[in-house]
Amino acid sequence: MRNMISDAPRTTLTAFYWAFLLYLLLPLTLMMAMSFKDANFVAFPIGDWTLDWYAKVMADKQFLEACLYSVMIAAASTLAATTLGTWIAMLIVAEGIKGQVIIFALACLPAVVPGMISAISLRIFISTIDMPTGTAAIILGHTVHAVPFVVVMALTRLRSMPGNLVDAARDLGADSVVAFFRITLPYLGPALVGGMIFCVLLSIDDFVRTFFLGGYRPTLPMLIFAKVQGGMSPEINAMATLVLVVTAAVGLYAEYLTRRARTR
Rounded to two decimals, what is the model's pTM? Predict the structure, then answer.
């Protein structure tokens, strides 16, 4: 009887887990299935299965340009966020710096502010400094949003770093700059690579900030949003499926790097 009572919460949690998993995966599965539909509309039943929509997407010049533009913005914002995030993490763990808790809280603030509020505040900011909407404004917005993730990952790695490594380098005559590039930065490598991959995924997927800060040149989310306004079609499903597969593969690789960094 006691075992039956103790097993009841476990069974309930298992049921909730599978229900939640179904809630997450069922729409994605339906989206991917519709991308192989041979007709011009999205609805069941699926007649013949075809790869024509994927061929059409890969031949779509507008789609390829939007992909390249999104990757360019992601690369620039990731580089900036990684540089700023690493510097902030180093500042937080440095000795003799006051207000480290406040610095950490401010650095992580963009991650907890709702996307709409963040986008509106960034739009007001660029208007105040007379920065035009477009590529530079989008990179700024994506950088601000990505910095907290780099800070957290770099900080976790730095706190596991033996302090005697840097001390030994300084005893051998290395100054702070040499010790950073020869000791600290290589030790941070796995965490920074994982953080950079997450930054790329955040940037490519960021619709709200891009919508408020962008110009006339569309990123990938903006292009898909514009196409949806004309009605759903298997071509849009094919675009979304390609993005999903690539981002899932990159995200899993980032998770692998993060786990490996924690075990070292």
Answer: 0.82
